[in-house]
TrEMBL record, chain A:
Keywords: Cell membrane, Membrane, Transmembrane, Transmembrane helix, Transport. Pfam families: BPD_transp_1 (PF00528), BPD_transp_1_N (PF19300). One of its GO terms (biological process) is transmembrane transport. Residues 107-316 form the ABC transmembrane type-1 domain. It comes from Streptomyces griseoluteus. It is found in: Cell membrane. The chain crosses the membrane at residues 12-30, 111-134, 146-169, 189-208, 242-273, 293-319. The lineage of its organism: Bacteria, Bacillati, Actinomycetota, Actinomycetes, Kitasatosporales. GO terms for cellular component: plasma membrane. It is a multi-pass membrane protein. It comes from the Bacteria. InterPro entries: BPD_transp_1_N (IPR045621), MetI-like (IPR000515), MetI-like_sf (IPR035906). Its main location: membrane. Belongs to the binding-protein-dependent transport system permease family. This is ABC transporter permease.
TrEMBL record, chain B:
Residues 1-27 are annotated as: Disordered. Pfam families: BPD_transp_1, OppC_N. Residues 127-331 form the ABC transmembrane type-1 domain. Keywords: Cell membrane, Membrane, Transmembrane, Transmembrane helix, Transport. Belongs to the binding-protein-dependent transport system permease family. It comes from Streptomyces griseoluteus. It is found in: Cell membrane. The keyword Kinase does not apply. One of its GO terms (cellular component) is plasma membrane. This is ABC transporter permease. InterPro entries: BP-dependent_transpt_permease (IPR050366), MetI-like (IPR000515), MetI-like_sf (IPR035906), OppC_N (IPR025966). The chain crosses the membrane at residues 50-70, 131-157, 169-191, 203-222, 253-273, 310-331. It is a multi-pass membrane protein.
């Protein structure tokens, strides 16, 4: 187990390193000059050269990248805005705040959104899938399957504005979704995020319903399940103890992938509902050509994906004793 | 084609179909070999959901293809700003005066709040833009997937290892974030940031960006298939008889990966449609005045529309749901037709 974790973590670090290199070259090596955006209308060659020098853009790309890596690991005091302890992604071009602080600042929103909706979509999605598999072929099954099919064709950028229009703008039943600090007042935290949770988890739940149903049905046809039924175990016991356990693997796989990508920022959801999380931050930094911030969000999101990949693979060993980690 | 399925084809189809009727008897009598393609088509024709969803999908592609013709017959285009041309149709905020978003005999789907574009033609042309981009992405992804997947699977060894690592690496990319972040980068490769970006550059950038992170899943599947095929006798026979690798790939492997290829492509295309729409929704894809499915969603999420005219949202919304659901059902049916053993 320990060897597995060490090996996978090292692999993830290598991938992150390569990814930082590729994205760095992509963002900084392309003729898209952030200085042009920053110096505004009264712009001349001197002003641009000055901004280049302040931002360190007058050095060559490999040199800039080495400085970036050095700052990331060791921290740096050479920024005009102030000291920047490790992990230092530099300062945002737009807000002049340290990138790392901004990420940490935005993280609670994204985490709240992710955890809340994960609870919703796991319970509703898997629950509906199990019921459909239990009552296979009945009306309940057909309704659940058809509903999941239709919902899986919906997109957040349709459902989100629709919910906002109906519940907020037309009827005024809810306030506009917002992120309120959980520690300050759990109640406003809950009510502010309720609509985003429900919308996001509706979209996700459909996928889980379909998967839970199909993998349960597959499991129920397995030989060991049939044997258990044949020797007189109750349907309920076999369903929950035998088939359920076997059908966990695909569900856990997808759940890990979803959780990893959501924690890197649910971009469209946060953008639709105006929630100040990592996803919204990334779109804003694209519009402002805020390269250090963009690089920071990118690496953070990739780290989340890799982290949850490792967690999922480790979880296989707990779910299925036949799986050996190597 | 030297596929082993060929030989099994004629005999087993009756059993595989699992539908013993009067026609089944006739088929057992005449033991004529049928190609896997014909068998698949026969099974597909019998699947009512599949046929209906195929019709819906064809309908959408026809709309996209014929959009200029339809709008000519209808007498309007998606670029006319009716807020300027016909100001009497709008109130001071730019919302259509008539109820339900200004739906009337003249404007079938109403008028867009704000600029007052005609929604019907805008939707037609929007579907056209979206489908065109997604089709282009699918084609490039399929070509890349075949090239790298079959190469990795058939050649094996170092090639396989190298391609496998590249796939692992690209799978770690946060896809959506990478799309929005690299759109301006790719655009600025073609035009200077001070100039206006022409639409075709945006389209090209959308295709490049989605292709870059789109081909891995297909390549992985094709790698697995060709890896399994490599060990089969008919490939070995071809190799013994002195066929070159290129010939074996072309004549023996490729015809046998058509099945997973077609199934995957039908699953990939709708995902490209929604991804492209997502980018345009965020404002980094296609922008006004070029009509685009996703860009209509971004218009629909403005306060003006949510406050005053929710009718507008339903046209892009419902049409996309129908399209995606039909395409997904079609994908399931294609898979079932090719491989009747997999249970839903």
């Amino acid at each position: 187990m320990l060897r597995f974790l060490v090996r996978r973590t090292l692999g993830a670090v290598v991938i992150l390193f390569l990814l930082s290199m590729v994205t760095f070259v992509l963002f900084f090596g392309v003729p898209r000059d952030p200085a042009l955006l920053m110096c505004g209308k009264t712009c001349n060659a001197d002003a641009i050269a000055n901004i280049h020098h302040v931002l360190g853009l007058d050095k060559s790309i490999p040199e800039q990248y080495l400085i970036f890596l050095h700052n990331l690991v060791m921290g740096s005091d050479s920024f005009a805005q102030g000291p920047c302890p490790a992990p230092c992604f530099g300062y945002s071009y737009h807000s002049n705040e340290p990138v790392w602080d901004t990420l940490i600042d935005r993280l609670p929103t994204t985490v709240s959104l992710t955890i809340g909706s994960a609870v919703f979509f796991l319970v509703i999605g898997i629950g509906a899938g199990l019921v459909a598999a239990w009552r296979r072929g009945t009306v309940v099954d057909k309704v659940a399957t058809a509903g999941a099919m239709v919902i899986s064709g919906m997109q957040i950028y349709f459902l989100g504005p629709l919910a906002l229009a109906l519940l907020v703008y037309q009827t005024h039943w809810f306030d506009k979704p917002a992120y309120n600090d959980f520690t300050a007042n759990p109640l406003t935290w809950f009510s502010g995020l309720l609509i985003p949770w429900v919308i996001l988890s509706t979209i996700f739940a459909a996928q889980y319903t379909r998967m839970a149903r199909s993998s349960m049905i597959e499991q129920l046809q397995e030989d060991h399940v049939r044997t258990a039924r044949a020797k007189g175990m109750s349907r309920r016991y076999v369903f929950f103890r035998y088939a359920w356990r076997g059908s966990l693997i695909p569900i856990v796989t997808i759940f890990g992938i979803d959780l990893g990508s959501l924690l890197g920022g649910a971009i469209i959801t946060e953008w639709t509902f105006g929630l100040p999380g990592l996803g919204q931050l990334s779109v804003q930094s694209v519009f402002f050509s805020d390269l250090p911030l963009l690089l920071g969000v990118m690496l953070f999101a990739a780290a989340m994906i890799l982290l949850f990949n490792i967690i999922v693979d480790a979880a296989y060993a707990f779910i299925d004793p036949r799986v050996r980690l190597s | 084609m030297t596929s082993p399925i060929d030989i099994e084809g004629g005999g087993t189809s009756v059993v595989v179909d699992g539908e013993a009727g009067p026609s089944a008897k006739a088929e057992t009598v005449q033991l004529e070999g049928r190609s896997p393609g014909r068998l698949m088509w026969m099974r597909f024709k019998r699947d009512r959901t599949g046929v209906i969803s195929a019709c819906v999908v064809i309908f959408f592609f026809a709309i996209g293809l014929l959009a200029p013709l339809i709008s000519k017959l209808y007498g309007k285009d998606p670029y006319t700003v009716y807020a300027d041309e016909r100001p009497e149709l709008f109130d001071s905020a730019g919302v259509p005066v008539q109820p339900n978003g200004g739906i009337s005999g003249e404007f079938w789907f109403g008028l867009e709040p704000g600029n007052g574009y005609d929604v019907f033609t805008k939707l037609l042309f929007g579907i056209r833009t979206s489908l065109m981009i997604s089709l282009a992405v699918t084609v490039t992804v399929v070509l890349t997937g075949i090239l790298l997947g079959v190469a990795a699977g058939y050649l094996g060894g170092r090639t396989d290892f190298a391609i496998g690592r590249v796939i692992d690496f690209l799978l770690a990319f946060p896809a959506q974030l990478f799309f929005i972040a690299s759109m301006p980068v790719v655009v600025s490769l073609f035009v200077s940031p001070r100039d206006e970006t022409p639409t075709y550059v945006r389209v090209l950038a959308l295709i490049i960006v989605q292709w870059f992170l789109g081909w891995m899943s297909l390549a992985r599947i094709l790698r697995g298939t060709s890896l399994a095929l490599r060990e089969r006798e008919f490939i070995e026979a071809a190799r013994v008889s002195g066929a070159s690798s290129w010939r074996i790939i072309r004549k023996e492997i490729l015809p046998n990966v058509v099945t997973p290829l077609l199934v995957q492509a039908t699953y990939l295309l709708p995902s490209f449609v929604t991804a492209e729409a997502g980018l345009s929704f965020l404002g980094v894809g296609i922008v006004e005045p070029t009509p685009d499915w996703g860009q209509m969603f971004s218009k629909a999420s403005t306060e003006l529309v949510m406050q005053n005219d929710i009718t507008y949202m339903f046209f892009p919304g419902i049409s996309m749901i129908i399209f995606i659901v039909a395409f997904n059902l079609l994908g399931d049916s294609v898979r079932d037709a090719f491989d009747p053993k997999t249970a839903r």
